[in-house]
């Protein structure tokens, strides 16, 4: 296996030479036609035509309790019911993304409507009916379902996505001594990832060998979780997720469906299909924890930031160490000699909190980027100028150089394109009929990470390539960019490259999460391609460096040899592996961008409509302009949701998640989304990966909501520090006179 | 979902005799059945009945068959021209896909969106009389500020019904025994009181056959719906208004409100206070005072009181512009 450890910056590569001319191009999705014609099977759509059984989850309508007994008699005796699975192994929620451990219920009810059992029946309808007939007796326990009353009691955990505390110098002292002190607290609610495809699994046993199709993001971790959940060795399990209808972090760990389907299939001796209902997805997978964030910033009297404090409190269930890492960008984005970034987990008896759409940035920057706007205002400065004045030259926490940081380029380009100069300089100053108009902006940043990943390229004697890796495509475009990387590296037309993904029998990969997928999996394909080129060179008796590859031909000196001739009837298989190395520790790596928003707030009702949204981003090499831009559109749209709509409501009396479907849990609809503009600047980050690219998926979500909030302030003069900014929060700040005439 | 018997009604007189729960578009009933909020033993499919026409009545109004879809009704040229209010209300509701299935009769009888009504493990007097009301003291952002009781604070979610009430529409029905009657929309709905499970005056097996509109009402037609997102969200407050001015005075005012109560709300005292007066913000404030005199918030929905006032005033200002 050819291995590349990212210990130093990459030089010029075949991708830079762009001989085949496909890298970076906005080509159509590799699997697009299959998807739009219904030929790309999602998890639940496997084993069509086979004799299968269907599952339906029994849930516990109580917030915190012990299970006393389960009486499945009535359910079992319903015609068509095959079995009822219950026991300690049932997962009460999704597993976390950071370890192979699974949340087995062990007789406990830890949150409202958690799974307790599975009915397996001849049809979905029978299983659903029978589920209501399973009688479970509970011994109720006292539960606690909100964090406000428990402020200050949080745990500092070690199992989070970043250290709980990141400190430098003496923040308290510096803040006390600062010439200007800013101290505000912001709140973000709980969220549901709300992927279109619900969590679903189809499990099939063949002797002691399990094959399972499940909607998952990190297959090589997920297969271990499934094996752990059912108590078998991971080598006995093959997990497939060829197509995924969105994950947004909620499928980084397995859902409770995977283990239940496997247990059910074992019990009834035939394959079992189990799709969670939308209500199950909301109540029994995972959610993003609500946050209370205190932001303290000390500055000089002319606005230079001297110290930065960002202390977050968030929720998770008992024993859970994951926390919403709201300070993840704060650590490197903002200057300040003395620094304090902390996270505390307050225990609640509510559904497990886990990763959801840009964990950290998505919530943290709703706070910090509003705070910067408030500070700029305090100094009578334009928010753009304020950010420019406070741009650090090196990573302010570790003093590392930035691998590349073009935040100010993004801000400048955005300001120019948006015509930022036209922003009303005073709040509540512009009005069009019944609408109050305002502009707002924010920075965007997303820490970059490269993960170990491997891939195989198989080349047929005719010179066609197949890329194979256990990597997933969660709708992001992975199939397409891997095809492009292989085609560019190997000098093949796109239609000579096929891509096989989403199967744990393929080489182990990073999976999709944290926006690391394209660079990690993509680099493994790059490394494998290098090995293949090496093999070509060897066969031709030349140095690999001297070979030019284009349209299925190797060009060396004045020779032009078709691949088939080099292959001479052989099939060649090569493997490549990328591993992070020194560049991850000796540079600070992140993607950067800037958002600009124009909003209209209705002066009568406080309804807010986003009128324009522009995001300018840099994320190193863009592998496919179309899919990268689409990722950014997604981020912008979620940002509208964070600013204006999304909020998972937990009833503090019972722990019930009240708005548990897409009618009542509001995400943006088309009418909420204006024409979106995304501009990705030409960029390379040679420290980040052999592709010189960085993560992009979650960049565009970071900060958008704050840009919208800042625009609302500019429109109305109302500063709302509790998201989402719904009309009830704005009403009392609106002009007394209503209607157009006012 | 529980198993149920299914019967298809082939003519109107037979429908009531089949003694089951009517299903039209199914966009509300099926969702509720899947969750076992509703558990009918028998469904009577009425979608083959010949109730899909919109015809002119002798007095110059329109009779809308109970199975006319929300999409067809909103797009009908007569509705768009003469009953603009109704067309606007329909188009403000649900989504294109839902409106294609949703029917006139079903829309009138759709049930509340109270989150606790949908969650069978929670107390809810509407779903299970006597069990309590989880919305009181709970998540009640969307709940009623007018006409609620200590047993139920739910709202009626329809937009169409609000317009129908402002228009003074009449519901035509056929009882199970085959006799027919008509009920004004004004009298059709009930407040929750002690029996929130009973929402309308319809009796068991009584079929809505049509909704009749009076002859066109002149004036400015407005439907303003205030909601949490630009589309595909229920009204927090909506105002249906027909206002005619004459010689600088309000000559006619018909107003109905959605999102405020267990039924589309109408208060004749509000209309009376406006008629004969010259439009002014002070007058509109007085109208709002009357409308909201008895209004009571439940905590999270307190904002609806100022919101209703502001929306009413803005609609009236808009409807009397230039008078
Ligand atoms: C996500 C979502 C969003 C929505 N948003 C809105 C909105 O913003 N505004 C809005 O107004 N509506 C909204 N709706 C509701 C929608 O308008 C109703 O579901 C629809 O109008 C119901 O009509 P239907 O024909 O499908 O009724 P069904 O579901 O078939 O029936 C509803 C009820 O009416 C009874 N019934 C039906 N026809 C008759 C008849 N002829 N005689 C007697 N009884 C009858 C049924 O027995 C049942 O009890 C929304 C619905 C959903 C699911
Ligand atoms: S408001 Fe009405 S529908 Fe809602 S829980 Fe209370 S009784 Fe049930």
From TrEMBL, chain A:
InterPro entries: Ald_Oxase/Xan_DH_a/b (IPR000674), Ald_Oxase/Xan_DH_a/b_sf (IPR036856), Ald_Oxase/xanthine_DH-like (IPR016208), AldOxase/xan_DH_MoCoBD1 (IPR008274), AldOxase/xan_DH_MoCoBD2 (IPR046867), AldOxase/xan_DH_Mopterin-bd_sf (IPR037165)
Gene3D superfamilies hit by this protein: Aldehyde oxidase/xanthine dehydrogenase, a/b hammerhead, Aldehyde oxidase/xanthine dehydrogenase, molybdopterin binding domain
Protein name per Swiss-Prot or TrEMBL: Xanthine dehydrogenase family protein molybdopterin-binding subunit
Domain Aldehyde oxidase/xanthine dehydrogenase a/b hammerhead: 37-142
Organism of provenance: Jiella mangrovi
Record-linked SUPFAM superfamilies: CO dehydrogenase molybdoprotein N-domain-like, Molybdenum cofactor-binding domain
From TrEMBL, chain B:
Domain of life: Bacteria
KW Disulfide bond (keyword) present: no
This protein's UniProt keywords: FAD, Flavoprotein
Residue ranges constituting the FAD-binding PCMH-type domain according to the UniProt record: 1-218
Record's keyword annotation contains Flavoprotein: yes
Protein name per the record: Xanthine dehydrogenase family protein subunit M
Record Pfam families: CO_deh_flav_C, FAD_binding_5
């Amino acid at each position: 296996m050819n291995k590349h450890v990212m210990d130093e910056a990459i030089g010029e590569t075949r991708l830079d030479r762009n001989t085949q001319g496909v890298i970076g191009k906005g080509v159509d999705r590799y699997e697009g036609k299959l998807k739009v014609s219904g030929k790309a099977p999602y998890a639940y759509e496997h084993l069509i035509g086979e004799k299968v059984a269907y599952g339906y989850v029994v849930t516990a309508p109580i917030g915190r309790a012990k299970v006393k007994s389960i009486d499945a008699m009535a359910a079992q005796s319903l015609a068509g019911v095959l079995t009822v699975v219950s026991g300690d192994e049932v997962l009460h929620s999704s597993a976390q993304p950071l370890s192979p451990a699974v949340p087995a219920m062990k007789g406990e009810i830890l949150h409202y409507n958690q799974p307790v059992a599975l009915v397996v029946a001849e049809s979905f309808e029978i299983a659903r009916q029978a589920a209501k007939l399973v009688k479970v007796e509970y011994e109720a326990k006292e539960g606690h379902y909100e964090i406000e009353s428990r402020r200050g009691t949080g745990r500092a955990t070690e199992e989070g996505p970043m250290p709980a505390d990141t400190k430098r110098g003496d923040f308290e002292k510096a803040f006390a001594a600062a010439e200007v002190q800013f101290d505000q607290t912001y709140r973000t609610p709980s969220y549901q990832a709300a992927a279109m495809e619900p969590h679903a699994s189809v499990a099939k046993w063949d002797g002691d060998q399990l094959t399972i199709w499940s909607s998952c993001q990190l297959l090589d971790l997920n297969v271990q979780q499934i094996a752990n959940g059912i108590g078998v060795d991971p080598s006995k399990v093959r997990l497939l997720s060829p197509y995924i209808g969105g994950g947004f972090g909620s499928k980084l760990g397995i859902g409770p469906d995977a283990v239940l389907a496997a247990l059910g299939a074992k019990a009834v001796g035939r394959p079992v299909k189990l799709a969670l209902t939308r209500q199950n997805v909301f109540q029994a997978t995972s959610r993003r924890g609500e946050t209370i964030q205190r932001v303290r910033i000390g500055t000089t009297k002319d606005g230079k930031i001297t110290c930065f404090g960002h202390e977050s409190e968030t929720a998770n269930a008992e024993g859970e160490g994951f926390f919403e890492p709201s300070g993840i960008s704060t650590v490197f984005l903002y200057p300040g000699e003395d620094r304090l970034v902390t996270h505390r987990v307050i225990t609640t008896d509510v559904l497990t909190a886990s990763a959801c759409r840009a964990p950290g940035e998505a919530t943290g920057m709703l706070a910090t980027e509003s705070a910067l706007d408030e500070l700029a205002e305090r100094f009578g400065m334009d928010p753009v100028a304020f950010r420019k004045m406070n741009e650090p030259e090196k990573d302010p926490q570790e003093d590392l150089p930035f691998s590349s940081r073009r935040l100010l380029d993004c801000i400048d380009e955005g300001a120019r394109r948006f015509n930022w100069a036209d922003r009303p300089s005073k709040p509540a100053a512009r009005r069009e009929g019944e609408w109050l108009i305002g502009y707002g902006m924010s920075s965007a940043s997303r820490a970059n990470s490269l993960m170990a990943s491997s891939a195989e390229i198989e080349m047929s004697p005719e010179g066609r390539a197949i890329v194979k890796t256990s990597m997933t495509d969660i709708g992001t475009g992975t199939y397409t960019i891997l095809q492009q990387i292989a085609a560019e590296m190997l000098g093949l037309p796109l239609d000579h490259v096929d891509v096989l993904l989403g199967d744990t029998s393929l080489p182990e990969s990073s999976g999709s999460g944290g926006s690391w997928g394209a660079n990690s999996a993509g680099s493994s394909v790059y490394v494998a391609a290098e090995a293949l080129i090496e093999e070509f060179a060897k066969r031709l008796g030349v140095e690999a460096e001297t070979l030019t590859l284009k349209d299925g031909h190797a060009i060396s000196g004045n020779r032009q040899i078709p691949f088939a001739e080099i292959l001479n009837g052989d099939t060649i298989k090569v493997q490549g592996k990328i591993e992070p190395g020194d560049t991850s520790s000796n540079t600070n790596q992140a993607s950067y961008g800037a958002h600009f928003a124009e909003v209209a707030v209705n002066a009568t009702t406080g309804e807010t409509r986003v009128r324009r949204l522009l995001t300018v981003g840099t994320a190193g090499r863009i592998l496919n302009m179309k899919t990268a831009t689409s990722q950014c559109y997604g981020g912008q749209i979620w940002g509208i949701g964070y600013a204006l709509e999304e909020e998972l409501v937990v009833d503090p009396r019972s722990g019930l998640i009240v708005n548990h479907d897409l009618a009542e849990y509001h995400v943006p609809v088309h009418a909420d989304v204006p024409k979106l503009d995304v501009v990705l600047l030409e960029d390379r980050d040679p420290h980040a990966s052999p592709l010189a690219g960085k993560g992009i998926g979650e960049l565009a979500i970071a900060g958008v909501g704050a840009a919208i909030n800042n625009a609302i302030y500019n429109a109305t003069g109302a500063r709302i520090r509790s998201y989402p900014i719904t009309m009830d929060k704005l009403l009392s700040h609106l002009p007394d006179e209503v209607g157009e005439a006012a | 979902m529980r198993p149920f018997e299914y019967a298809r009604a082939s003519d109107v007189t037979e429908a009531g005799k089949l003694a089951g729960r009517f299903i039209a578009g199914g966009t509300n009933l099926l969702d509720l059945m899947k969750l076992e909020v509703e558990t009918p033993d028998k469904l009577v499919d009425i979608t083959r009945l010949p109730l899909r026409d919109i015809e002119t009545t002798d007095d110059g109004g329109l009779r809308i068959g109970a199975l006319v879809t929300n999409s067809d009704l909103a797009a009908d040229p007569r509705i768009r021209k003469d009953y603009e209010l109704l067309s606007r209300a329909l188009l403000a509701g649900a989504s294109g896909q839902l409106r294609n299935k949703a029917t006139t009769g079903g829309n009138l009888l759709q049930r509340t969106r109270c989150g606790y009504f949908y969650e069978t493990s929670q107390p809810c007097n509407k779903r299970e009389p006597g069990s309590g009301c989880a919305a009181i003291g709970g998540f009640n952002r969307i709940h009623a500020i007018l006409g609620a009781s200590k047993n139920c604070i739910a709202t009626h979610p329809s937009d169409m019904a609000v317009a129908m009430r402002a228009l003074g529409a009449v519901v035509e029905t056929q009882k199970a025994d085959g006799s027919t009657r008509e009920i004004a929309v004004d009298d059709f709905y009930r407040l929750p009181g002690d029996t929130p499970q009973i929402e309308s005056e319809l009796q068991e097996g009584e079929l809505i056959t049509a909704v009749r509109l009076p002859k066109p009402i002149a004036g400015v037609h407005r439907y303003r719906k205030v909601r949490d997102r630009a589309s595909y969200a229920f009204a927090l407050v909506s105002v249906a208004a027909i206002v005619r001015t004459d010689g600088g005075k309000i000559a006619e005012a018909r107003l109905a409100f959605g999102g405020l109560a267990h039924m589309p709300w109408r208060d004749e005292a509000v209309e009376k206070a406006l008629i004969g007066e010259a439009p002014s913000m002070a007058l509109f404030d007085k109208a709002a005072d009357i409308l909201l005199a008895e209004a009571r918030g439940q905590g999270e929905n307190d904002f609806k009181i100022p919101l209703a006032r502001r929306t009413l005033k803005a609609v009236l200002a808009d409807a009397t512009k230039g008078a």
